[in-house]
Amino acid sequence: MGFDGRLLSGMSVLAAVVETGSFTRAGEVLGLSASGVSRSISRLEERLGIRLLERTTRALHLTGEGVRLYELVAPHLAGVEDAANTVSGAAVSVRGTLRVNLNSLFSRYVLAPRLSEFTARYPDLHLTITQMPDSGDLVAEGMDAAIRFGPQPPSSMSSRLLLVTRVITVAAPTYIKKYGRPQTPAALSEHNCIQYIDPQRGKPFAWEFHAGKKVLPIATSGQLTMTDVDTMLNACLAGAGIAQMLALGVTHHIESGALIELFPDQSDEKFPLYAIRPSRRLPPAAIEAFLNFCTDICKEQTKP
After folding, report:
1. How far, in Å, CA of 61 to CA of 64, rounded?
2. Band of the pLDDT at 223, cuts 50, 70, 90?
3. Residue 256 scores a pLDDT above 90
4. Would you say 257 and 173 are in contact if contact means Cβ atoms under 8 Å apart?
5. Which residues fall within 8 angstroms of residue 93, CB to CB, at 6 or more apart?
């Protein structure tokens, strides 16, 4: 089969559809209409004589032949794109549009106070911030990077550890006044403990208490189970129950007296925060600028 520019163009469109999850988002990346993307894929399928995508009203899926073709051509497309970026200056110039998915705690307490500094430093970069569960599909959502808490499952995505924060057990003074303060972790079995669902497993996190290398698991229960950190925090502040929270998001409440840390001598459990890059569809300098900025501000969070 002879090679021509239309074949390369079709392969690029296919890669964009796979990496963004839809004709519409691929069109936004490529500067085409959704119908233009669809026509390009149809021409590529006709040229190759195989069906590459199964289309339904709700989703797109690669066929077996489509998977094999994408796996073969993606590394070469990346090389072409890197070469073009280098020549055009995109590899060293921070510009374009960056879509990032951020954990709400990181977004609110770490990044938001520094965003004016970031935008002033990179005036040609437009940042779109979204929030979705830490288990969401970044490629399908068209994200260029994500900041997520928790150990990351094995995948083809690259990840960078930004910081670790303590897991602490807290309650509001109003709760303690009404129900008493548990003196040991074991006493939590007699208290109303707010449960938080692990987004990766779909089940509540198990409560553990760490003191050095010693780990004490405690079975807890309560009337409330949450999937939203802000709702859990506000419920705890209102005296609805005892909660295990990340220190990153509640330290200021402890300092103000709005929350009380119950077992500070058994709070050595740490939880990691990662930056994840799922896609190559952005000039390298832009994504690196954002990740390096996040790395720097997270280092400041962990200074003694």
Report:
1. 9
2. very high
3. yes
4. yes
5. 124, 283, 285
Residues ≥6 apart with Cβ < 8 Å to 21: 60, 137, 139, 140, 141, 142
Residue 178 Cα distances to 239, 240, 301, angstroms: 9, 11, 35
For the sheet containing 195-198, what is the strand order? 203-204, 195-198, 225-226
Stretch 176-185: mean pLDDT, rounded? Answer: 96
**Per-residue confidence band for 49, with pLDDT thresholds at 50, 70 and 90:** confident
Query: Smallest Cα–Cα separation from 123: which of 103, 96, 101?
Result: 96
Of 152, 147, 151, nearest in space to 130 by CA: 147
Find out whether 1 and 69 touch, Cβ atoms under 8 Å. Answer: no
Query: Of all residues in the chain, what percent carry a pLDDT higher than 70?
Result: 83
Closest CA to 21 of 70, 67, 59: 59
Dist. CA 270–CA 247, nearest whole Å: 10
User: Average pLDDT for residues 106-113, to the nearest whole number?
Assistant: 90
Distance CA 276, CA 161 (A): 9
Question: How far is 226 from 165, CA to CA, in rounded Å?
Answer: 20
Burial of 181 (0-12, 13-18, 19+ CB in 10 A): middle
- Burial (Cβ within 10 Å: 0-12, 13-18, ≥19) of residue 166: middle
Which residues is 246 bridged to in the sheet?
Answer: 167
pLDDT tens-digit map of 16-47: 888 777 888 888 877 788 888 888 888 888 88
